[in-house]
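Justification of computing resources. Each target in the renewal requires a structure prediction run like the one illustrated here; the chain below, 228 residues long, is used simply to show the kind of job we budget for.
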Amino acid sequence: MKIGKRLQQLQSLVTEPYDHIWDCCCDHGLLGAALLRQHPESHIHFVDVVPALIDALNERLSQHFADRTHRWQTLCMDAGALPLNDYPGKHLVIIAGVGGDLMMDMVARLQDANPEKELDFLLCPVHHQYALRTLLISRGFKLKEEVLVEENRRFYEIMLVTTHQNTHQPYADISPVGSRLWLTVDQVQPDNRKRYLTQTLAHYERIQRGKPDDVQPILHAYQQVNLS
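Resulting structure tokens:
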């Protein structure tokens, strides 16, 4: 099945070889299925907490990828409790389509449970982006890539981050408001960065009217973003 613009962007950021790719909160498994075709060297794990979704996905995968059953599996479980230590090799954990608060909980638990393992995370929260970035910074994550994508008149921040630094080619620090994010230009709508920044500022200005002390530092940080 054809995947949308957001999932296409997520797929395009998976460029490194991984032994295991975990498509968490996978819903109908469209991203994982695309990666199953794109990365024949990887084992794809489809993870969701909803039994009905996993049952239906397992049936579809068995039909369309019957010849590759050794390269995929479905798991009905909490994405924050992935059994990463049961699988040696390099891991990419993809979490998309959930709020930043839930995403923060999942990322923190996975890092705490696997402190010595090098993990890459591909994250696309639906809200609470600033809080998520703040958590990643506090936990020592580094940035590999970040982009802004618009789909169905909604903006999404996508971040590829890692728990371990590359000593030969150091990765960038994560900015609480994004850095490379604002350099991403959508070829169809080149003003998307400006519109997203305007929406974000308006959001925090509304909150500030009720809780000025809580969001003033956040609002100030976004006001310093330079789009030139």
